[in-house]
Amino acid sequence: MKLRGVFMSSYLGVDLGTSNLKILLFSKEDGIIDLESKKIDSYQPKEGIHEQNPEEWVKKTVSLLQKILERNKKYVPQIEAIGFSGQMHGLVCIDSKGNPLFPCMTWVDQRSKNESSYISNVIDIFNITGNLSNPSFTLPKILWLKNNEKEKYKKAFCFFQPKDFLRFKLGKNKLKITDKTDASATLLMNIKTQRWSEDILKSFEIDPQKLPEIKNSHEIVDYLDDEIAKQLGLKKNIPLVAGAGDQEAAAIGLGITNEKESFISCGTAAQIFRTTKELFFDKSLGIHLFSYPFTGWHYLGAIQNAGNVLEWALNILNLDYNEIEKIDRKKDNNLYFLPYLTGERTPIMDENARGVWIGLNTSHTRKDMLKSVLEGISFSIKLAYTQITHISGFEYITYFIGGASKSRMWSQMIADIVERELSVLNIYEGSAYGAALLSAIGTGGIQIQDLTFFKPKIKEKIIPNKAMFSSYNEKYERFIRLINLEKSFRNNYDK
């Protein structure tokens, strides 16, 4: 990952994830130098609420920067810029002094279900934004705030995405800015013009002055605050680059600049990412359409229930991660698990969907239940993957990233279920890496075409086992029927 014959410059990438904050140090000569991470606290006082403290992000970011720079002192004078990525769809509402008026409502938060339904009844949101209304998005959250916290809504100076609030607080000039990728994931942006939609703002009486200015992901939008720079031992006026949403940043970290490559990511949530140069609208597919710096747009299959559900299952089953590798995939225990503990997006787009175990009997063990959880998540990934390939076909490289890629067994299971060769890379923190690369592009340290030089290496290719196709396909078809069964039961029960 070295580019020879260039002057050494170093860059920082800050990734504000849902579960963890990560900071990566990168140099053009030495590649990825170091990574530091810290868990982010989430608060769920009742069902449907998922909040984080935005001020905690700032404190932890400065603390992690201190750690990584102290450990890598020789690179400190060479730091040229800082880039950002982060969890998408959230809402941070600040006052005119830059202080949060309300805890961050993350993408996991579902309290705006009524507002989400209302949006669809007022305007054809899909044909403007390329996305169906869902409580995970920002617009329903803004409307919830407007309906339930009227005074705070009136005092709102800006509605930020998480990474943009963090950059705002670290910046010298305190500018209200977002980038095209995050803006496209709010339900407020016209996907064709890549500008805030006047029709949407008028329909819901949202003051455009409360929204940040939209910039390109690689643009310099501010400079590091002098006091913070002094505290960190950095030079003055280090550029802050706009950055991108976590999935788009991950794609940049993988060096995806065309339509020949895609990725499956499986972390807290799971995603299927594929770029496109042409817009395609089909509500029935349940996929998202967002901006992407190098091709214009990309499709995203978004699965809300992945690593978060696995963590829940390990906890209630009193098992640890080591048990995953011991699972016998060839043994069919006739146990099924529907992983929709927090509703689901692609492709069913049902915020009320719920989890189900079916087939349990006295012979089943905790390990059997764990296996069914992993299969259920993997089947959900296949559902979303199938929707993406419906548009774009199968002829492209598929990278596999995220925490799940660390598990050889689970990687093989997903490859067998999706029936696709997966290329596992030697990097797991693609979003932080992409943020660092964006900062290098923004300051002229590298060119877009240089991304090829910094592309992560393929550590292993997971070849799907054809002998497993038949049994998994049978189980997958039953899984789909279970989705419909759960919905039918829920609808009848609600009546």
Task: Walk me through what this model shows.
This protein is of the alpha+beta class and 495 residues long. It has 2 domains: 13-242, ATPase, nucleotide binding domain (Nucleotidyltransferase, domain 5), CATH 3.30.420.40; 257-428 and 458-494, 2-Layer Sandwich (Nucleotidyltransferase, domain 5), CATH 3.30.420. The chain has 15 helices and 24 strands. 48% of the residues are buried. Mean pLDDT is 93; it is low at 1-6.
Break the fold down into its secondary structure elements and pairings.
Layout: E1 10-16, E2 20-27, E3 31-39, E4 51-52, H1 54-71, E5 79-86, E6 92-94, E7 104-105, H2 113-122, H3 125-129, H4 138-148, H5 150-155, E8 158-160, H6 162-170, E9 177-179, H7 180-183, E10 189-190, E11 195-196, H8 198-203, E12 213-215, E13 220-223, H9 226-232, E14 239-241, E15 244-245, H10 246-253, E16 261-266, E17 270-276, E18 288-292, E19 296-303, H11 307-317, E20 336-338, E21 356-358, H12 366-392, E22 397-401, H13 408-418, E23 422-425, H14 430-442, E24 458-462, H15 469-494
Parallel strand pairs: 1-5, 5-15, 9-12, 16-22, 22-23
Antiparallel strand pairs: 1-2, 2-3, 4-7, 6-8, 10-11, 13-14, 16-17, 17-19, 18-19, 20-21, 23-24
